[in-house]
Amino acid sequence: MVAKNDSGRFDKAFGVKFPMLEPSVYVPPPPTSYLREWHPWVRCAFRFAFLYWVIYMLPSQAAVSPPHALSPWVGRHIFHLTGGAANWHPTGSSDTAMDYVTVAISVVAALTGALFWSIVGEARAKRKEYWTLYAWLRLILRFTLAVTLLSYGFAKILPAQFGPLSPYGLTETYGDSSPMHLLWTFMGQSRPYMMFGGLMEVVPGVLLLFRRTSTVGLLSAAAVLLNVVMLNFSYDVPVKLYSGHLLLMSLFLLLPDARPIWNFLVERKEASLTGVWVPRFERKPLRIGAHVLQGLVVVGALFFVIWTSYAETQTRANVGPLQGVYAVDAVKGFGTDARWAQAFFDDRYGQHYFGLIGPDKKPIKFPVTYDLTTQTMRINDEKSAASFQWSKDASGELNFVGAFRGETASLHLRQTSPETFALNTRGFHWVTEDSYNH
């Protein structure tokens, strides 16, 4: 942005002015700018936005968030939901029917509150603007958005969000994969691209922590989040509501600087970023305390997101003792003896799985638990309760002996190297003489 009163050595070097890079010429918006009156419709819109964001940022526990507590009743009596959709239940999705009902309740509550607030406020005719309240709301939203971007970014860099291809992922066909699992496979297969994607979230997250760089942070955050929203909608990832709110949050925070950004980038006019900031404390001890508190919040947020991402990587590393893909050399007692061609042992979301794959590439998998002391694997399935003892030699061959569905069963398995899969062997090539698109 070009500010009319800025000057400095950057003018001579580049022919343009960079106020963001010249701390000595940075001047906060004059206090008089906060004395401008708002149009009545702007005041009404702010009241709704303020109430909605406050309600949305409440913790999701029913005791703290009234919309969360009311959702089951509203879902059953207003939207006529039944079954599992009519109640909160453990899930990895944030796009459940209850989540949509909660958003609807929040919108109605914010509209109702804004209506009463506007009736009382306009009747008293004392408050013509909400600059200070707006500034505090922006500060909270900005730090919320920053911490969220940092957490998702570091989860990709470490990595914790997308892990390496699992044994099941290596044997699964594209046709049997869900769109979300295909996206997870695509991201997890390339560590450099995954880290790049994480860096593109960390950079705006860091920029949002500081006032001088907040606008460029918001512009980059909006671009990154738009891509995230498109991925979530295109690959049916059940965080559409959440990612949509984050994108909306970044656009909401850009509103005060929308006009100068338009003037500078589109109309090619001189423009000056103003923003809306929390009023400066008059007393020096309060200013120092505020800076110290901000520093503690920044350091604490960074430590939290890095630690949680690291903890997730440690959880991923806790795999079962037999993790891997195996060729089936001999089988007896698992349905049709000649049916199974491959077997795999995998871990997903803290649960161990054992699976068998036939020539048709249609896998069946069972949740299992291991007893390392007795080298026993137990299948925890109501219809397929079974227990096996295994032995494993130095070459990776496994022998299982036990009972499956009341009948004697045995397996002889030979471990397959992950490097036998084309997805893991192709690698990177600067020069490609012929297209390798198998």
Task: Give a description of the structure.
The chain has 438 residues and is α+β, with helices and mostly antiparallel strands. The protein folds into two domains: 297 residues, no CATH class; 99 residues, Lipocalin. The chain has an eight-stranded antiparallel β-barrel. α8 packs across α9. The radius of gyration is 29 Å and the shape is elongated. The N terminus is likely disordered.
Helix-strand string: HHHHHHHHHHHHEEEEEEEEH
Give the radius of gyration: 29 Å
The SS-based structural class is alpha+beta
Count of domain modules: 2
Query: How many individual β-strands?
Result: 8
Strand content: 5-15%
Largest sheet: 8 strands, antiparallel, barrel
Q: How many helical stretches? A: 13
**DSSP helix fraction:** 40-55%
Strand order of the largest sheet: 1-2-3-4-5-6-7-8
The pLDDT mean sits at 83
For the terminal residues, how far apart are their CA atoms?
A: 48 Å
Q: What coarse outline follows from CA principal-axis ratios?
A: elongated
Low-confidence stretches: 1-32
Question: Could you provide a short overview of the structure?
Answer:
This protein is an alpha+beta fold and 438 residues long. The chain has helices at 9-14, 40-56, 66-77, 97-124, 131-157, 167-171, 179-189, 191-207, 214-234, 240-254, 258-265, 284-317, 422-425, and strands spanning 324-332, 342-348, 351-357, 363-371, 376-379, 386-392, 397-404, 407-416.
Structure characteristics:
single chain; 438 residues; Lipocalin; 13 helices; eight-stranded antiparallel beta barrel; disordered N terminus
